[in-house]
Amino acid sequence: MSEQDSGPSRKPWGGRFSEPTDAFVEAFTASVDFDRRLYAHDIAGSIAHARMLAKVGVLTEAEANRIVEGLEAIREEIESGRFEWSVALEDVHMNIEARLTERIGDVGKKLHTGRSRNDQVATDMRLWLRDEIDAIVAELERLQTGLLDLAEREAETIMPGFTHLQVAMPVTFGHHLMAWFEMLVRDRQRLIEVRRRVNVLPLGAAALAGTTYPIDREYVAELLGFEAVAENSLDAVSDRDFIIEFLAAGSLLMMHLSRMAEELILWTSAQFDFIRLPDRFCTGSSIMPQKKNPDVPELVRGKSGRVFGHLTALLTLMKAQPLAYNKDNQEDKEPLFDAVDTLRGCLRVYADMIPAIEPNRDRMREAARSGFSTATDLADYLVRKGVPFRDAHEIVGRAVRLGVETGRDLAEIPLEELQAISERIGPDVYEVLTLEGSVAARDHLGGTAPAQVRAAIARARARMSSRADATRAV
Ligand code: ARG
């Protein structure tokens, strides 16, 4: 029996303990059931640490090589499902380390020199989240590209624009889709900015105060692709603000996806009937044979609550924690993992589904036509004829009242009746009362004119391919 095997229930930290851990406490404190998910990043961090220890002469090259080979073999065991995880060994870190020593003997016990699980777990979380942010951004970009393609096809499609969910002015469907696109632009920027602050190396902080070995943290950072080394050891092991800001960015993204969801749900209803979603993205009712339900957007809308909840959970976890590491921080994992899974799932299903939207162009046009949506165009027409805007507003209000009372849209009211309201109205008024004329007239940067939508899409494609959105200030 070696020295370390002598503690109760052979814990790696068992030396100073005189009785075994209570069975329930063992299960209560263990995290291996969920943190085993960090195995690949834990092994990558350990390999970099071992290489560094050899570089500075704490390990021999031969020792480091054996450790690295052992860790690679363990990765292989885990990936092929042969690894036996043990709750008694508490977490992913001690499971892997114990197995390393089992495989390569006493030299495995040297891996943890100059390191603590406190800086190890902070490193693992940052490495893991960095990869997940990259995967989320890639999926987000796929969704954005799908939106651009759909917006391009629908650049001229007329639909009602809404305020207060009441028909307001005609817009193009392409313009509406580009509004969604722009929300996602900012979400992508936020994630890329968060990644920069995630990508900082805590390793070397050890338990909290640093270590007495002549470590080379810059070298570890270089091996692991970290952009910077954490400046302060107490801060490095304890703060989880990088997770909180990721969850904040993720919450904003989910908030945007929920707004898109809400519109998709409304538009697929019989009352709107603006779009159809292909059957493969819908589900039926077990009792009502006629039903085809928009479950996918409904679930996305509902799942936004989970991510907001995880943000609140992590803020509460971190609030008032004294320096440095506290076991509270083990509770960062499940909320973060669930938030990442939720984000990836929602983005994936949207990226698949949204380009497959089938618009009902006739219905959209009809809804825009019947809602007095060109009333503002008539007011602008009167202003061009010299009527002050407030008076024009009043005149058009009377024309709308006439339309409401007689069941006609503005374009259906004969000229004599319009002229009875204002003699400034001429036969050319019907040009501005058409839906096409209305949207085409909003012909400036950011406007809904089809030509502007096409230009916006072209600029968006250039921004995406140059990655300019990632650094743009707005
Ligand atoms: N499983 C722990 C966590 O996730 C690892 C660090 C534990 N450190 C300690 N001193 N108990 O935070």
Describe this structure in words.
The chain is mostly helical and 474 residues long. 59% of the residues lie in helices and 4% in strands. The strands form three sheets. It has a two-stranded antiparallel sheet. A two-stranded parallel sheet has the order 3-4. α11 (295-318) runs antiparallel to α12 (333-353) and α14 (375-384) packs across α15 (389-406). The model is unreliable at 1-6 (pLDDT under 50). The structure holds arginine. Arginine binds next to α6. Arginine binds at residues 31, 35, 91, 117-118, 121, 327, 329-330.
Fold blueprint:
Blueprint: H1 23-29, H2 32-35, H3 39-55, H4 61-79, H5 92-104, H6 117-153, E1 158-163, E2 166-172, H7 173-198, E3 200-201, H8 217-224, E4 228-229, H9 233-238, H10 241-268, E5 275-276, H11 295-318, H12 333-353, E6 358-359, H13 361-369, H14 375-384, H15 389-406, H16 415-421, H17 429-433, H18 435-440, H19 450-466
Parallel strand pairs: 3-4
Antiparallel strand pairs: 1-2, 5-6
Helix pairs in contact: 3-4, 3-6, 3-8, 4-5, 6-7, 6-12, 6-19, 7-10, 10-11, 10-12, 11-12, 14-15
The structure holds arginine.
